[in-house]
Amino acid sequence: MLNRQGRPTEAGSAEGTAHETFTGNRALQVEEALIFEAGRPEVTGVDLDEPAKVSSRLGGLERKAPIGLPGLTEPETMRHYVRLSQKNYGIDTGLFPLGSCTMKHNPRTNEKMARLPGFGDVHPLQPLSTVPGAIELIAELGRWLRELTGMPAVAMTPKAGAHGEMCGMMTIKSALAARGEKRTKVIVPDSAHGTNPATAALLGYQVEGFPARADGTVDAEEVKRHLSEDVAAIMLTNPNTCGLFERDVVAIAKAVHDVGGYFYADGANFNAIVGKVRPGDLGVDAMHINLHKTFSTPHGGGGPGAGPVVLSEALAPFMPVPYVIAGKDGVRFVEHVSDAEKGAQPFGRMCAFHGQMGMFTRAMSYMLAHGADGMRQASEDAVLSANYIRASLGDLMSLPFGDQPCMHEALFDDHWLEGTGVTTLDFAKAMIDEGYHPMTMYFPLVVHGAMLIEPTESESKASLDLFIGALRDLAMAAKKGDTARFTGAPYHAPRRRLDETRAARAPVLRWTPPTPQSEAAE
Ligand SMILES: *Cc1c(COP(=O)(O)O)cnc(C)c1O
Asked: pLDDT at residue 446 above 50?
């Protein structure tokens, strides 16, 4: 059956009560047309005088056909975008248990600070003399990041975690080149985030992987078997993507240093250890920090990120420009490779300007609001929340590495679903019906049918209890054989199962007007 919008309906899906509506809407869930479908070329939201005739100087290159923008009135435009925004699930609408992403609450005080005109309205091409406060904030944030990580230098410009990985690995490549060495290999354990091998490969390295041991951590002895004078670096995530602290990390760092290689740490999971462990003390040479994860600057849905990279003494000289150094006579700004202090050999630059000012301001505000003790407590609470989830679901859902404590995320596999006819994907879709964004699924790859849940510290116990209750109810339904609740889910979302593979492989990114019927008939 098709509704008025020509879309298939799912009458009777929930409890046999759903009936077809004239509009295709479901109460406040409005069936939203594309703006191009809704727009009419003759409509405009503004009332401008007809411009005076000018003679064209474009030599016949001016556009003759209509520009093709959708025409809507102001209220139509407003409603379209507000309704679209309401379809988005975000941390402001509910618990967002997406493991490895640290979807925590973004405190509103951060937003307020980021909007102060002195931060929010600065332009990257403004003379330096007009933005001393912004430069000082970059320096101060850098100081906090160095303090928290126990590292001597920080490159602030990278714009995301993956960009930071690239920056860190480029400093490693430069440091090796300065030693006159051209090593070809980077070691990346199989449990790594996909961006790690991608970064190494992009820089021309040969990536060598190996599996973790049975308890989910990387074995220093196994690392040693892969080390040689040809290894430029190891890229290791700690806590790792299974939510476990790498207990051999110091031995791994030493082994890599012994063959002259560097230790790149993926710091995306820093939220588990802020104020508890300083990566510099573990022997890390470079680590990116996802400000948008750990320090609560909004992300997901295309929000900007920021991925500063802290660097060891050995790598600091190769830090890309521009950067700020805070010295006795205030903050010095190094814009060009030629301005760099003696001995420094910046490898170039990662981006045109100084980084993501809005993210810097939010992260600084977050840090100042929390203070050192508050940041430590945030990490402790994040770990406590994850362990509460693990302990509350562990009797129903299987834990791949046994009943051991986790860090800030709880990892389940799909062993417990065997024989139920329900898959990890089905389970995730049923969570949507319960009003939750699904957890991270099928990652890390080292675990079969992985479900990675990261609740973060910003959920209250009441919120965690409701989430646990919903997941327990779903888990019991799956075990009881109520497969329909899963295989057809989501029932209540504006769209049901989408062909996600086709959407990824053959995305339709451009709207083309439907062929008029008269032409189609010819
Ligand atoms: C998020 C994440 C990244 C990449 O960070 P982006 O900011 O998304 O580029 C890298 N590694 C791990 C473990 C992550 O969780």
From this structure: yes
Q: Is the peptide bond before 322 cis (omega within 30 degrees of 0)?
A: yes
Q: How far apart are alpha carbons 500 and 87 in whole angstroms?
A: 18
Residue 516: strand, helix, or coil: coil
193 lines ligand 1 (CB under 6 A): yes
Residue of 188, 290, 439, 445 to mutate, ligand 1, most atoms within 8 A of C-beta: 290
Instruction: Tell which residue, 305, 122, 474, has the closest CA to residue 466.
Output: 474
Atom 8 in ligand 1: which residue has the minimum CA distance? 161
- Work out the pLDDT band at 11, boundaries 50, 70, 90: very low
Instruction: Check if the beta carbon of residue 158 is closer than 8 Å to that of residue 352.
Output: no
Lookup result for tokens 């462990």: 277
- The two tokens of residue 92 are 């402001």
Distance CA 504, CA 496 (A): 17
Instruction: Please tell me if the CB atom of residue 166 comes closer than 6 angstroms to any atom of ligand 1.
Output: no
Where is 333: in which H helix or E strand? strand 330-334
352 secondary structure, DSSP code: S
- Domains of the chain by start residue, with CATH: 109-365 (3.40.640.10), 372-503 (3.90.1150.10)
| Candidate from 139-143, 301-305, 349-353 with smallest mean pLDDT | 301-305
- Of the candidates 459, 482, 511, which has an alpha carbon nearest to the alpha carbon of residue 91? 459
Number of neighbouring beta carbons within 10 Å of residue 430: 26
- How many other C-beta atoms are found inside a 10 Å radius of the C-beta of residue 104? 22
Sign of CA dihedral 153, 155, 161, 167: negative
Which pairing describes strands 185-187 and 206-208: parallel, antiparallel, or unpaired?
Answer: parallel
Q: What integer pLDDT is reported at residue 191 of this predicted model?
A: 86
Name the pLDDT band for 168 (thresholds 50, 70, 90): very high
pLDDT attached to residue 83: 93
Residue 91, pLDDT > 80, answer: yes
**Greater model confidence, 84 or 250:** 250
- Predicted confidence at residue 521, as pLDDT, reads 54
Burial of 317: CB neighbours in 10 Å, binned 0-12, 13-18, 19+: buried
DSSP for 71-124?
Answer: P--HHHHHHHHHHHHHH---TTTS---BTTS------HHHHHHHTSHHHHT--T
